[in-house]
Amino acid sequence: MLDQRNKEPVKGQYFAFNFLAVKDEPRYGQPFVKKLGCAEGEQLESAGPEGRDFYCNGQYLGTAKHFSKTGKPLKTFQYKGVVPKGYLFAIGETRDSYDSKFWGFVNKQWIIGTVAKII
Question: Domain 2-115 carries which CATH code?
Fold first, then answer.
């Protein structure tokens, strides 16, 4: 269920946003739903031999894959520092999720609302 009144997700909460991170991406402008993995003001680090392992405040978030399901090479977002004010690091639930590990931060202005799972 989408709550368009709440545009301030908390860490671990799902939120919907318009995907505006990569202009030449076919999904540009479409709504995405991801989980807030690292919030503004928190410490984000891409680590490991190729910078594909992501940590927020030292807690492991996930590893970026080398290739998409179709075999296309994937670029990895590289970052070490504090998540800037007005931005979030979004993560998906599965290893195949196309998320911030690949395209970087979500601008909070893109947020449509928070999302609650219906069981």
Answer: 2.10.109.10
